[in-house]
Write a structure and sequence with these properties.
Blueprint (H helix, E strand, L loop, with lengths): L3 E6 L3 H12 L4 E7 L2 H10 L4 E5 L11 H11 L4 E6 L4 H9 L4 E4 L3 H14 L21 H4 L4 H11 L4 H8 L3 H15 L4 H10 L5
Parallel strand pairs: 1-2, 1-3, 3-4, 4-5
Length: 215
């Protein structure tokens, strides 16, 4: 019987424990490591034989590997043989589409963790395609004018807010992380969008992702 070595990455111990229990129910999968930050994750992938990575989308980002799309892109580029399942609460179709473009097997919503992980593991073990949940792909490739000059208009604070937004954080989450009020964060985000000449969150996300601005 073929077995698969699994690494699980999440900064919440309860999630780590729950995912590990789900994985270890299937004897075809063996958990060979756990990580609670990006540095630990990359170290595991570099030093162990890993077939499958199950990782949270939002990880502590105080490392050169970052988190969110930046981390996933690093993993898929440097460890192309490792299959990746991403856990998240994010439903933004542009982020989900970008994850698919990066080669992620599936994005699993945390509120559907139990059923979706079990279904994904069964498909992987059988060599079948993993069923993708969520909205249909939305193209994020834009052949419009170069935005380099527009991004140069941003203040450092506005740039940081957009970076966190593109990683999937909402205004309230960004405010808590930066120890500012949600009103301040919202005002700075609107100011940044005005400087970039975009009119909606989706348009902003499409520009940033297509140009790999924060990668």
């Amino acid at each position: 019987m073929e077995t698969f070595n699994v690494v699980i990455a999440d900064d919440h111990p309860i999630v780590l424990l729950g995912v590990r229990e789900l994985v270890e129910r299937d004897k075809r999968f063996s958990v060979v490591g756990q990580a609670i930050c990006s540095n630990e994750l990359i170290n595991l992938l570099s030093t162990r034989q890993v077939d499958l990575l199950i990782t949270d989308f939002n990880m502590p980002a105080d490392s050169p590997y970052g988190d969110g799309l930046k981390l996933v892109e690093y993993v898929t580029r440097h460890f192309p043989k490792v299959r990746v399942l991403v856990l998240t609460m994010i439903s933004n179709p542009l982020i989900l589409t970008r994850l698919q473009e990066l080669g992620v097997l599936a994005v699993i919503q945390k509120n559907q963790l139990h059923d979706n992980i079990e279904a994904a593991l069964k498909a992987i073990a059988k060599g079948s395609p993993v069923r993708r949940n969520g909205p249909p792909p939305t193209s994020v490739i834009n052949d419009g004018a170069d935005l380099e000059e527009r991004f140069s208009r941003l203040s450092p604070k506005e740039y940081e807010i957009l970076r966190l937004f593109v990683q999937g954080q909402g205004v309230n989450e960004i405010a808590r992380g930066l120890n500012r009020s949600a009103k301040t964060i919202s005002t700075q985000k609107v100011s940044a969008m005005r400087k970039l000449e975009v009119n909606s969150d989706q348009e902003l996300m499409a520009y940033c992702i297509a140009r790999n601005v924060f990668n």
